[in-house]
Fold:
Amino acid sequence: MERDANLMAVLRRLDDPEWLEFPAGYSRTELAASCGILAADIESRFSTSCEIERDIQDSAQYARIEVPGESTVSGTRIVVLVSKFKPLAMVAADNPGAFLSTDEACAEGALDASDLEEVKQALVGSGHLVIPEELLMSRYDGVAHLRFHGSGEPDWWDRFFGSF
Structure:
């Protein structure tokens, strides 16, 4: 609970109503370099090439890195999302939303704990903070007025990884 409260405090601190798609002082060059280092580290840890999508337009998400299932213990791909709001990042088994959490994916055997730890170490090593998917799925109650494109109420995932 304390961990989640601390992480929510980080989300709230980054939630500026004037900067929706990226934060004040955003540097595409710096984030590109950081994501390049992160992607190279993940590829090295899994001895594979990862599919990488960068500089995602009209989104608070900067990059999506996919570790192919053939390179994981469980055979399930691992998806890493990096927000334009550094240091935020998240990890999902198969795809965001496929499981309620990485804990659930591990419990069901779809994600190996050692693979998850390798990804988390790469993220921390590149200066990112891993925000659990289940926390990001909490209802957004921040200060920004989101132009929400989904159904239902927006959540924190929409705020820091979603499209605008």
Q: What stands out?
A: Strands lie at 51-54, 61-67, 78-83, 88-93, 129-130. The chain has one domain: 2-161. Residues 115 and 145 are 37 Å apart (CA to CA).
